[in-house]
Amino acid sequence: MTASHAFVDACAGLLGASHVLTDAHDTEPYLVDWRKRYRGSACAVLLPADTEQVAAIVRLARGHRIAIVPQGGNTGLAGGATPDASGAQAVISLKRLNRVRDIDPHNNTITVEAGVVLAELQARAESAQRLFPLRLAAEGSCTIGGNLSTNAGGTGVLRYGNTRELCVGLEVVTAQGEIWDGLRGLRKDNTGYDLRDLFIGAEGTLGIITAAVMKLHPAPVAKVTALTGLASPHAALDFLSMAQHHAAALLTGFELMSEFSMRLVGRHFPQLHYPFGQPHAQTVLLELSDSESDEHARALFERLMEEALEKGIVEDAVVAENLAQSQAFWDLREHIPLAQAEEGLNIKHDIAVPISSIGRFIDETDAIIAKAVPGVRMVTFGHLGDGNLHHNVQAPEGLDAKQFLAEFQTPINELVYDQVHRHRGSISAEHGLGQLKVDEAMHYKSPVEVRLMQSIKAALDPDNLMNPGKVVRWNATPVKENAT
């Protein structure tokens, strides 16, 4: 009997045969990433019911030398939750760990298991008159464990921070199959290394997050949502500074959308109405969240817009008059990736640069790409308030998209990532590295940074069985210092 067969049989005894999937029809949804860019194979897909079962699986995997790939809602965009093609790895789906363990209104925290869907967490917070502010397009299917493992961003980072900033405690199964209970719910705990932050964003390469204590916030009394038309990303930066001056912490959303992004949405989703009579080079979706009143929020917004229009920073603006219109504005933003998919295959970049560099980055990089591939169409949108830009490249009109990707994806990636590096940015802002960008990360990070990451991996997962091949390149060979 092979090691993988022995492992699968042992897991069936542990979990019950119905929670160990090996039939191709049953395992298929777990072996393909959301974008269908990566397709792997696995000796089994395992569905544990609780943290103790996850820990027992890890101990079995270690004993049989089976690599394991943790998976949440399988909505990732970098292939981080997809096994390799060997068929020797096992997928551990956390979707049965879906309980809300506790809501503490006085501590403003909620304790949830890793398989809780983000929308469910939001709803449970709302039932306690609280806000959980993480907002993502995939919130109906992504899970909090996956959000933490990739340190997901979303539209509220400007005010509330990434998922890391929303977490105060973790429960983790280590690579040795031990359970670390860090579910303390403390804002202050200055007792050594911050293990919580080490596991967040590690994409399951150091251990498996099984539960978390997440921060809640007071639910806003009122929201004001508006769309504004501007002449350039430079004007959008000026508008951001002005909005932050006027609104401070009330500014909870500031999304930048290029003209072509809006045209794509209009082409493929004509029911979504762009409210301006003429196109603008850039459109900003702005949202204020107020704890006082709707009148207070609107008065503040009116003062902001009066100054922005008077100074010529904003060309036009329209304010949502009700919740339906507010949602319609957000639908324009959220449908950009869907419109891209309808238009055809494209080259995606989830990058971050210092906020002050965004205008220069767009001008310079768009010009470089246009020179290299005449006729390309730039789909530029993102969270301007935190420097996260989705800088995507659509094939020239009439050119076969598959041919475009085959010929130009690698050189365009190099052009964009070189520009990101020159502006001291990051090649992955909120999607993680997974297997998509691991080699590029090893290239653009300094040797010191790479060695530190490899050392952490070697210390916590010396057998390299936790999601190998993702985030950091390391082959379980002990890391040695250079001779001096």
UniProtKB/TrEMBL annotation:
Cofactors (names): FAD
Keyword presence, Flavoprotein: yes
Keyword set includes Chloroplast: no
One Pfam family from the record: FAD-oxidase_C
Domain of life: Bacteria
Gene3D superfamilies (UniProt xref): 3.30.465.10, 3.30.70.2190, 3.30.70.2740, Uridine Diphospho-n-acetylenolpyruvylglucosamine Reductase, domain 2, Vanillyl-alcohol Oxidase, Chain A, domain 4
Domain spans labelled FAD-binding PCMH-type: 38-219
Record keywords, A-Z: FAD, Flavoprotein
GO MF assignments: catalytic activity; FAD binding
InterPro entries membership: FAD-bd_oxidored_4_C, FAD-bd_PCMH, FAD-bd_PCMH-like_sf, FAD-bd_PCMH_sub1, FAD-bd_PCMH_sub2, FAD-linked_Oxase-like_C, FAD-oxidored/transferase_4, Oxid_FAD_bind_N
GO annotation (BP), single: respiratory electron transport chain
Family of this protein: Belongs to the FAD-binding oxidoreductase/transferase type 4 family.
Name of the protein described by the UniProt record: D-2-hydroxyglutarate dehydrogenase
Originating organism: Candidatus Paraburkholderia kirkii UZHbot1
